[in-house]
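retry 2 of 3: previous attempt timed out while embedding guanosine-5'-monophosphate. Reduced batch size to 1 and resubmitted. Inputs unchanged:
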Amino acid sequence: DAFCRELPKVELHAHLNGSLSRDTMLELKRFHVDIGVPDKTNAFFDEFQIGSGDMRKLADCFQVFSIAHTLTNTPQALEMATNLTLQEFQDDGCCYLELRTTPRDTPHMTKASYIETVIQTIQKSSLHLTMIARLIVSINRSTPDKEVEEITDLAINCYKNYPDVVVGIEVSGDPTIGCFQSYIPALQKARAAGLKVSLHCGEVCNPQEVLDMLNFKPDRIGHGTCIHPRFGGTDETWTKLCELKIPVEVCLTSNVNTKSTPDYESHHFKYLTESEIPVIICTDDKGVFSTSLSQEYRICAETFNLSTSKLARLALNACQYIFADDIRKTLNDKLLNFINKNSL
Ligand code: 5GP
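retry 2 succeeded.
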């Protein structure tokens, strides 16, 4: 436990509104009461958190984010949520975080002011945090085509104005909605502008879409659950991933709690590492799944019988796949120092 917390870790798959802890939500609720907003979110913790025995499946999970969204719809609350979440990742021993979030219009913010608020909060965090944070702009699959273009242009603009914060773009949201092909022009434009791309890939059984995504050659993919034939993929999808070796952001507890994977033991982590596909241990939504990055490392070690040295190397390897090229070496050195100091 202590080792997993002390190990400097790299988090590359964390959705802001899914990462709000119970403490952060309580603080936000208090803030809303303070500013006179009526509290319409009774019993929201029970609804927001999805534990291992929960009957809800992946498809039902997308509704829970609207609970968090009610608490982050003003610039002040969004800034508070971002700050508290960054602090929690740092307290858990995270040395580098790529936070992701979907720009959205609220009664108090436009998509542009939403994303500006998060960017400026991240920028200011460098004054009081040792953890380095960057931002990935999310596109939700439920977004109409016209807005996909708007978000992509916004991401490109923010990347130009804040190259020290914005590093990538990603596609998430309910995987049964929309079609990946329709995002390709927007993603190509973002990529041409210099943004890195990550895709939620293979969360549900859809081998054709998995192939289309892999053929796009994203810099990383999220989950990658239904790519191996054992989990609803095909020989072709698995062979393609093995050939391309695209790094996979692995979210163990998220996959187990949403029933995307039957249990930790049969998680595809095993198949990925056996085939030398790079893996990065991540949390996905630490608030929704009541987890932390150090807990995910601990679960991984316990389930797959990994030594502390192996765990440290998992963290070290993750440094290679961060989107901020300019700090890869600094992070790498930090991890190597930790490994040497602890004779791992
Ligand atoms: P936000 O982007 O509002 O900060 O974070 C919540 C959003 O992240 C959700 O509305 C959803 O679009 C996305 N998200 C969070 N967890 C998952 C996940 O496990 N799978 C997918 N596909 N999307 C997710």
